[in-house]
Amino acid sequence: MNETPRPMRRNEIRAMNETLILQAAEKVFAEAGFGGATMQLIADVAGLPKANLHYYFATKEELYRRVVGNIFEIWLHAADSMDGAETPAEGIGAYIDAKMDISRRHPDGSKVWASEVMHGAPVIQDYLETTLRDWTAGRAALIQRWIDEGRMAPVDPQHLLYMLWATTQHYADFGHQIETLNGGKPLSEAQWNAAKASVKQIILRGIGVL
Amino acid sequence: MNETPRPMRRNEIRAMNETLILQAAEKVFAEAGFGGATMQLIADVAGLPKANLHYYFATKEELYRRVVGNIFEIWLHAADSMDGAETPAEGIGAYIDAKMDISRRHPDGSKVWASEVMHGAPVIQDYLETTLRDWTAGRAALIQRWIDEGRMAPVDPQHLLYMLWATTQHYADFGHQIETLNGGKPLSEAQWNAAKASVKQIILRGIGVL
DNA sequence: TCTCTTCCTGACCGTATGGTCAGATTGCAG
DNA sequence: CTGCAATCTGACCATACGGTCAGGAAGAGA
């Protein structure tokens, strides 16, 4: 029953508690939505008194904003895998892999993001209109270049991107449905690989690079 | 300023008000989520006093359950288009058309459904485990039959279904994102047709029937 | 017309929520 | 060791929420 006597540094305390709160918040927001989530529940999950949450994050909305921002960063960086690619098959295949991994490893964050967009993006509309718009334009141009060079079938780049987002994100957002249809059990390692293979197979053949 | 003097029949009153409330509820639940929606706001949108809502629907959860049930019916019936098909291309193409039309015509309902599943299906878990499971098994078997007959490429039927759901539903659930990336304007008639065509093109080629 | 049932609604209630604050505790610089 | 600033938290507050209810208004059947 001896307690760790080591005193904590100020920096450590702040970093640790912020992380603790953000993790708890992500989970609770994912499960209950912004409106359904309560600061009390987040505090309980984080193992801190509610008043302590308000010490680190002034309002519920500020905390929520941070959670959404975090997942948005992860989401955006998945595109790096698409850039260095030699071929369309390689680039888009890697992007699918990356986004499927996000769905698997950050299901809560994915749900929070989906929920935010679904409700009209009340707090991250500016992101959509700047960062995301630029990002999308860039990738659409890259895909269009591939098409112009005759390296893949002529499809609408925008709708291809939507399909990639939708399909990969589905495994996080509708994970509960998938789990139910899987006999109530989460997908196994092998099943995740099969899912990735299926998605890549259909889409890559669909754009004529298989 | 003359008011319509015709007295309303009992049946009419009930049917009209229930419809009015359900429509308002669908909209509000879609915009705010279950937790974020308030009976007061639904009442305002419906143009009725809040107490009147509780006369027709005892609790918020009962009202929500009805909204979810309604969209689930529509969602399930979209599969009828898949059944009478002569070829896989025809059947799956028609299913994509039907589900894209649902996304377009019932975006609010689609969002409510997505939100419900995303949050672990707290009120319609039984549907998932019975109706949806049977439905899915049936369609997967149909697709598998097509594959066995060599009429389409050998893909995992389950993951193909997920891709169909994800891609079509995306145009409703992430409609705000799509709208933002479309310069802030909703998709036009022509753009919706282009979207349908793109989705069908990629998927149908992806399963080797184009 | 009269009676019964359905429909309607303003006022009200208990509770839970987001947020505040004064004061205790604790790491840290000098 | 001392003083300061950062961290912590139980108690508290105003508000908004879901839901109730008594009593009035209005069709329906005789």
From TrEMBL, chains A, B:
UniProt keywords (A-Z) are: DNA-binding
By its UniProt entry, which InterPro entries does this protein fall under?
Homeodomain-like_sf, HTH-type_TetR-like_transc_reg, HTH_TetR, Tet_transcr_reg_TetR-rel_C_sf, Tscrpt_reg_YcdC_C
- Gene Ontology MF: a single term: DNA-binding transcription factor activity
What positions does the domain HTH tetR-type occupy? 15-75
Please cite one Gene Ontology biological process associated with this protein.
negative regulation of DNA-templated transcription
The record's PROSITE patterns line, in alphabetical order, gives: HTH_TETR_2
Q: Which residues bind DNA?
A: 38-57
Tell me the protein's name: TetR/AcrR family transcriptional regulator
- Lineage of the source organism? Bacteria, Pseudomonadati, Pseudomonadota, Alphaproteobacteria, Rhodobacterales
